[in-house]
Amino acid sequence: MKDPLTVTKATLPVTYLRPARGWMAVNLRDLWRYRELIYFLTWRNLKVRYKQTLLGVSWAVLEPFLTMVVFTIFFGNLARVSSDGLPYPIFSYAGLLPWGLFAKALNDASRSLVANSHMITKIYFPRLILPLASILSGLVDFAIAFVVLLGMMVYYGVWPTATVWALPLLVLLALVTALGVGLWLSALNVLYRDVGYVIPFLTQFWMFISPVIYPASSVGERWRLIYALNPMAGVVEGFRWALLGVQPQATFLPMLALSAGISLLILISGLFYFRRMERLFADMV
Amino acid sequence: MSDLAIRVEGIGKRYRLGAPVLRYQTLRDKLADAFGGSSDTMQETVWALRDVSFEVRAGQVLGVIGRNGAGKSTLLKILSRVTDPTEGFAEIHGRVGSLLEVGTGFHPELTGRENIFLNGAILGMRRAEIARKFDEIVAFSDVEKFIDTPVKRYSSGMYLRLAFAVAAHLEPEILVVDEVLAVGDAEFQRKCLGKMSDVASQGRTVLFVSHNMSAILRLTEEALVIDKGRLVLRAPTPQAVDVYLSNGYAQMGERTWTADEVPASAAPFRPLAIRLRNAQGRVVDTIRSVEPADVEIEYALDAPVTGLRVGLYLMSTRGEAVFTTFDTDEPALFEQLSVRPAGHYVSRCRLPADLLNEGRFVLGVNASSYRVRRYFQDEQALTFSVDAAGAPGMQWPEPRLGAVRPRLDWSIEAVQE
Question: What is the ipTM of this complex?
Answer without folding.
Answer: 0.81
